[in-house]
Design brief:
Length: 424
């Protein structure tokens, strides 16, 4: 069995649970054959420092030889690249266990996404292929490396332009529509998707990571807005919101009567989507990744979260109605093509779903956008160990709310949230 070579940044603490027999099984699953011989394994970091708080991402390149029914190709060396997502079992991320994110993501990739893609006659890819899982010693999932198919991340700092947003709306509508159709075929399949980012289970502990993080952001928002002339009334309403923050967060996601139900991605922001471009750098396709917080509920959850974490401010201000139209047109078109007798929501129904979930947009704007808007230099020291230090965490949140993008977005969005009744 071959050995594993680690990049320099991993040599101090290499992921020993990822051994050669593990990767042998990965290759066998990917190629659908056991007639392979590993020749070399190279492991490096798969994301920049500070881009992933709760998991470690590795890119692993595997050289192998395989017996192609006695053909000459069996003597040739081949190479495969995979992405490994490993979630360490540490106390500070207890919400990962509370929300069963590993099990949910495994079910999504193994069972749900393949069935959704079959409903779409395999004309759409909603996510990468999952090759292997490991529960102990660390929750680990091994995925197809979509960069080998020329998919890349867009810039998270600036926000997406209209072309990117329209493409995301189309693909999201297809994903949602396919989930509605699958629910008619298998009514129980989404029972395991009752928890999302704002689940009561994840927010139950006062000293839990999620609640502390969102509370720190909301307090800093209040402090900043309180210093803005003309925002005194809104600052007062944010102060009242803070007094019942946990209840407001839970209510923002909780099921409502007579709502449209879809499988929400649950964490739909720029870093959880990969784009493919043509020769002139126009986006041609998008594939979603990271389905660990998916939730069965209103499409208003995904739509509001995406709008307030991932759009450039100009698009948020001026193109939101057009984007909702793009989404609705593709949702309607896909449901009719699937021909599963799923009722097609009207545009007015969709608008109502989005409006009833404006509180989710407010949460995304203060809870997620400030982190998204940081430069790569600012996020270089972002990790869970550092955030345990109260002074470090406070400096970071102050830095986040100094971002021009955050300030300008809040100055635009807060009056909108007030008119929508989010603070009532």
């Amino acid at each position: 069995m071959c050995s594993i070579v680690y990049d320099q940044e991993l040599q101090a603490a290499p992921p020993r649970h990822l051994d050669a027999p593990f990767f042998e099984e990965v290759v066998e699953t990917a190629l659908r054959t056991a007639r392979i011989q590993l020749l070399g394994i190279h492991c490096s970091l798969g994301s920049s420092t500070g881009e992933n708080y709760c998991s470690q991402i590795y890119r692993v390149r595997i050289k192998y030889r395989w017996d192609n029914n006695g053909k000459k190709a069996s003597q040739q060396e081949h190479q495969m690249s995979v992405i490994v997502k490993s979630i360490p079992r540490i106390e500070s991320v207890e919400f990962i266990e509370d929300l069963q994110v590993y099990l949910k993501e495994k079910i999504t990739y193994y069972e749900v996404l393949p069935r959704l893609e079959l409903l779409m006659q395999c004309k759409r890819r909603f996510g990468p292929k999952l090759y292997q899982c490991l529960k102990l010693p660390e929750n680990t999932l091994v995925f197809e490396d979509l960069s080998q198919l020329d998919y890349v991340m867009a810039s998270r700092e600036a926000g997406l332009n209209e072309e990117h947003c329209r493409l995301v709306m189309e693909r999201l509508a297809e994903f949602h529509a396919a989930s509605m159709a699958l629910a008619t075929l298998d009514p129980q399949i989404f029972e395991a998707f009752g928890d999302g980012m704002l689940s009561p289970h994840g927010l139950a502990k006062d000293d839990g990571l999620l609640l502390r993080f969102f509370s720190g952001n909301a307090k800093q928002l209040h402090k900043v807005v309180n210093s803005w002339p003309g925002f005194e009334r809104i600052a007062s309403k944010i102060d009242k919101y803070l007094q019942q923050q946990r209840a407001h967060l839970v209510r923002a996601q909780a099921p409502l009567e007579k709502e449209i139900k879809v499988l929400n991605h649950g964490d739909l922001w720029v870093n959880n989507m990969l784009f493919k471009y043509d020769r002139v750098q126009q986006p041609q396709d998008v594939i979603f990744i990271d389905f660990q917080l998916s939730i069965w509920g209103s499409p208003g959850i995904d739509l509001n979260y995406f709008f307030y974490t991932s759009l450039s401010l100009d698009i948020l201000k001026h193109k939101r109605p057009q984007l909702l139209k793009v989404y609705h047109n593709r949702l309607k078109e896909t449901l009719l093509q699937l021909d599963m007798n799923v009722p097609v929501p009207s545009y007015e129904q969709l608008l109502n779903e989005v409006q009833r979930r404006e509180s989710y947009g407010f949460f995304a704007a203060y809870g997620i956008l400030p982190t998204v808007s940081q430069s790569k230099a600012q996020t270089a020291d972002n990790n869970l160990e550092n955030f345990k230090d109260a002074d470090f965490a406070q400096r970071k949140v102050e830095q986040q709310f100094e971002s021009p993008r955050v300030v300008e977005t809040m100055r635009y969005a807060l009056p909108h949230f007030e008119r929508a009744g989010v603070f009532d």
